[in-house]
Amino acid sequence: MAITDRFCPKCGQPSEREGLCSRCRAESVQWLSCDGRVQSVHCPACDARKVGSVWTDTGRDRESIAYDLVRSAVHIHPDVKQADVRIRIIDLTHNRSRAEVSVTGRLYGQRVEGSCETEIAWLKEQCDRCSRISGSYYEGVVQVRAEGRHPSPFEIQTAAAFADEAESALQTGGERLSFISDMTETRDGLDIVVGSQHIGLLIAQKVTAELGGRYTTHPKLVGEKNGKQLYRITYSVRLPRFQKRDVIRWKGRYAEVVQVEPHGLRVFDFAENAIRSVREDEVEKLVGNARQAEDAMVAYSDRDMIGIIDPVTSKTVESKANADYRPQAGQHVRILRDGDFIVILR
Question: Residue 304 and residue 309: Cα distance in Å, rounded?
Fold first, then answer.
């Protein structure tokens, strides 16, 4: 053995470096430790999880959360290579679990293995969103109404669906406080109580963009917090007098509304089979809406007249045929009633 050979001062064995050999170095290092306790805080109402001071909607199950918590409690020396961590979780009670951790790897070229334990505490706390909802907190109300009429069932359902879509999109995007706390159909229309001004604005914009009309905002000062004035805003949505698919009588002829415009209507003229522009003051009567049309069978078709079997009385009623639309006997058509007259829709 040469005099230049290195020896481990602890075990006396040859060493490839100055100081302790690899085995003694590995034995002298505390390479594995576990925190004695970790905790998970979740909301019992919506199952959101609190990390630090921030609430998030995780959508994850308890088992996957537990493994992440335990991994965060395990501390392995950075010189350990090829670490293989195995975790076994034992539920002691509903609110407490024990995790047994075993780790193998290589430290300074030596195989090492060790184990430790940590306790998981499952804590419950009402989240920020549920706390606001249970406390009847809100920042705005979207009121859906219509000019000179009650909003139709279709408009009510559509507005409600838009509200749900807006809430889902904002919640997915991380805006937990953009929620709908109440949605009620009233004798005048639909009231949507919202948790943030942002969602209220989005709902008002979406409803008017799709159903027509306009909206106005009416803020009300309700207090002050941290030197900042707090407002609640009423988003007053006014749907137009007419809606898409309304069938109107105009200049003695019938037409279906295809678009509501700021200064009038775009309609499909049944008699001429063409699109026309009509001023609202030119409308003689609102016959009904094509969504509520009845189904009827054609008894006969004779030149410009069509015989329709009234689905209520079973009597045959004549109606004038529309341009380029002459259904034949035995076919089914959609109809609306204008008094005793039957209007055949396209």
Answer: 17
Bridge partner residues of 232 (DSSP): 220
At residue 168's C-alpha, the angle toward residues 167 and 174, to 5°, is 90
Phi then psi for 231, rounded to 5 degrees?
A: -125, 150
Q: Decide: 306 and 326 in contact? Cβ < 8 Å.
A: yes
Q: Which of 30, 11, 33, 29 is nearest to 20 (CA)?
A: 11
Q: Which string of b and e fits 243-254 if b means at least 16 CB within 10 Å? A: bbbbbbbbeebb
Question: What pLDDT score does 12 carry?
Answer: 63
pLDDT tens profile 255-290: 999 988 877 899 999 888 889 999 988 899 999 999
Q: Which residues contact 141 (CB under 8 A, 6 or more apart)?
A: 191, 192, 193, 194, 200, 232, 233, 234, 235
| 52 phi/psi in degrees, rounded to 5 | 70, -115
Rounded distance between C-alpha atoms, residue 209 and residue 272, angstroms: 29
Q: What are the helix (H) ranges across the chain?
A: 22-28, 62-73, 128-134, 153-172, 197-211
Six token digits for residue 149: 């009429």
Residue 166 near residue 158, CB atoms below 8 Å: no
Task: Tell me the pLDDT tens digit for each residue of 142-198.
Answer: 999 999 899 999 999 999 999 999 999 998 888 999 999 999 999 999 999 999 999
Domain boundaries, the chain: 31-124, 136-239, 246-344
Residue 208 pLDDT level (bands cut at 50, 70, 90) = very high
Q: CA distances (Å), 280 to each of 142, 260, 336, in order?
A: 27, 10, 21
Which residue type is seen at 318? E
